[in-house]
Design goal:
By secondary structure, the protein is α+β, with helices and mostly antiparallel strands. It has a single domain, classed as Heat Shock Protein 90. Helices cover 35% and strands 29% of the residues. Helix 1 (17-26) packs antiparallel against helix 2 (33-53) and helix 2 (33-53) packs antiparallel against helix 5 (107-114). It has helices at residues 17-26, 33-53, 82-85, 95-99, 107-114, and strands at 2-8, 56-63, 67-75, 117-123, 127-135. The protein is built from 5 helices and 5 strands, in the order βααββαααββ. It binds adenosine-5'-triphosphate and magnesium ion. Magnesium ion binds at residues 45, 48-49, 52, 107. Adenosine-5'-triphosphate binds at residues 45, 49-50, 52-54, 74, 76-79, 85, 90-93, 102-108, 128.
Length: 136
């Protein structure tokens, strides 16, 4: 089963909608609450990174009997140093983003903790691609 969502950069009021929708869809399948929780956390953090740091993006969901794979592709500033971005506490969030309650630098480490596979790549000045896989 495939689904695709558009994510608008800077729109904190709609931010989280796509991941919330996927959560309610996967709840209808025979997936353990623990897995659903892990998927929901990873997708929410990834979606909010597009909202907080990029101009716009899309989220492609591929739901299979034994796993879920989700790819986020955005147009934005990209990430200069991926290793640094993965560190707990590292954030380049603007004051505006911090006022919305984001910018602790915990999103990417949290995604890593909650999925089975994570692939992060970026072209600075162009955008970022994040692929997340969770096995059921
Ligand atoms: N999609 C993205 N586009 C551009 N930069 C990104 C993107 N995702 C992450 N980053 C960069 O990686 C840093 C770390 O991301 P991470 O999600 O861990 O923390 P944060 O978003 O700053 O804060 P938090 O997630 O705790 O609210 C960000 O501050 C930003 O510099
Ligand atoms: Mg984040």
């Amino acid at each position: 089963m495939k689904m695709q969502y558009f994510i608008q950069g800077g729109d904190f009021s709609a931010g989280g909608r796509a991941s919330t929708e996927v959560k309610s869809i996967i709840k209808q399948f025979n997936i353990s609450p623990e897995k659903i929780r892990r998927i929901a956390i990873a997708l929410y953090e990834a979606e909010m990174n597009v909202v907080a740091h990029a101009f716009k993006g899309k989220m492609d969901v591929d739901l299979r009997p034994d796993h879920i794979r989700v790819v986020f592709i955005d147009e934005g500033p990209g990430i200069e140093d991926i290793d640094k971005a993965m560190e707990e506490g590292f954030s380049t969030a603007s004051d505006e983003v911090r006022q919305m309650g984001f910018g602790a630098g915990m999103g990417l480490p949290n995604i890593k903790r909650n999925c089975d596979e994570m692939l992060l790549s970026s072209v600075p000045g162009k955008g970022t691609r994040l692929e997340i896989k969770v096995l059921f």
